[in-house]
Amino acid sequence: MSSPVRILIADDHPLFRLGLKFALQAQGFEVVAEAETGSQAVNCCRETPIDVAILDVRMPDGDGIAACQQITALGLPLVVLLMTTFQEPALIEAARRAGAKGYLSKETDPADLAQMILQILAAPEQDWLPAKQELPKLTPRELCVLQLMMEGLANKQIARRLGLSIETVKEYASTAYRKLEASDRVTALFKAQQLGIL
C-alpha cells in the first residue's frame, strides 16, 4: 500500500485552512504542514517532506506567487498548486511563470480537488493551468492615454500633455474601451489592471 500524499496548506484564513485540511484528509491525503504566510510556506517546504504545496494567491509576508517562485527555485520533488478566488488572467500567467502546476478556485469541490491533485502528480510536466487568454491589442498611444487616465488626468489634461486635441484623446479612449469591452473609464481601467495591461 502506497503512503498518502503529503500536503502543505498555506492560507492566511485559519477557517479555510481547517476546512481544506478536513476535506483533503477525508479524500485520503495527509496534511503534514500549515502556513499563514508566503515565507512560512517556503520554510515548511525546506524543513518538511511535502509532495504538494497548496498556496493561497493573496497572503501577507510574501504572496502565493512569490512563494511559489521561491519553492520552485529550491528544486525539491514537489508540485505547487495555487488556490484563489481571483481568476485574473494576469495572475494565472504570473503563476505559470513562477512554476505553479495548478491554479484552482477555492470553490472547487473536494472530490474534484483530490482528482486534480492526483492527475497533476501523475503528470507534473504537463501544463495544468487554465489556457492563456488572448489580451486586447492596444496601440502604444491607446495605452499611454489609459496610463494617464490611471494617474487621474482628465481628457483635457491628457490632450495638453500629449500635444493632441481633446477629440483625438477621446477617440483613443473610445477605441481602448471597445477593445477592453468596457463602457466607461472606470470599467476600462479596472479591466486593464485585471488583465495586467496597466
Explain the layout of strands and helices.
Elements: E1 6-10, H1 14-26, E2 30-35, H2 38-47, E3 52-56, H3 64-73, E4 79-84, H4 89-98, E5 102-105, H5 110-122, H6 140-150, H7 155-162, H8 166-179, H9 185-194
Parallel strand pairs: 1-2, 1-3, 3-4, 4-5
Provide a descriptive summary of the structure in words:
- The protein is elongated.
- The protein is built from nine helices and five strands.
- Helices cover 50% and strands 13% of the residues.
- It has a five-stranded parallel β-sheet, with helices on both faces.
- The protein has helices at 14-26, 38-47, 64-73, 89-98, 110-122, 140-150, 155-162, 166-179, 185-194; strands spanning 6-10, 30-35, 52-56, 79-84, 102-105.
Shape: elongated
Radius of gyration: 21 Å
- The helix tally amounts to 9
Percent strand: 5-15%
Helix content: 40-55%
Major sheet size, sense and barrel closure: 5 strands, parallel
- Record field, number of beta strands: 5
Order of helices and strands: EHEHEHEHEHHHHH
Average pLDDT, all residues? 91
Strand order within the widest sheet? 2-1-3-4-5
| Spatial gap, N to C terminus | 51 Å
* Helix/strand class: alpha/beta
Low-confidence stretches: none
